[in-house]
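Example record

One chain of 236 residues, shown exactly as stored in the release files.
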Amino acid sequence: MRLHSLQHIPFEDLAYIETWAEGKKYSVTRTLLFKDNKFPTLNDFDALIVMGGPMGVNDDAQYPWLSEEKRFIEKAVSANKIVLGICLGAQLVADVLGAHVYKSEYKEIGWFPVRLSGKAQDSLVFRSLPPEFMAFHWHGDMFDIPSGAIKMAESEGCANQAFEYNRRVIGFQFHLESTRDSIDKLVANCSDEIGDGKYIQSAKKMLSVYNEVKLINQMMRTFLDNLFTLKERKML
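Predicted structure tokens for this chain:
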């Protein structure tokens, strides 16, 4: 299995997903959009992972590569690739599918619970997650659920936390791939976003929950195992 990631900034990489892929002996390639915008051909990968970043989906003037990136994501969706968008990545996928992306009422930065929707039990992949679980968050924008997609999760601070489209296209507003190292990097590079807010934790609090990191990575592993098993069995 061949994974390709779209990485927007140096400090938001695949994190635990790369560890998982190495364990599976899957190949991993990358487009580092902060360096160049060289995209692979559609025949070069089986799954596309779109990572997070501090920019917004409509910041094309500041980040001209966003327009080409959205066209590339659209092509991957149309080619029936597995597409997993995380945080900004989920917002980009939602935008490509015609949904509105906008400032959320609340920023979510830190560890907060996520609840699955009633529809999640009908999903071959989301039903592997607990009905409610703690996840890591770092976002100020949110997406509407795209037409034809199914809402899969929510939180108190963000009504739309996840969606599934055509079974193979997934959006996570939250993070299950985060590691202690990746959270350290976010805190080091984006500390100016940590302020007062109902759903904003201190850096000390975010970095003190080591056991939660292990738990979210376990959930990420189970989710990816299920998703790629379905792909290998041609059930997607």
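Notes: The mean pLDDT is 96.
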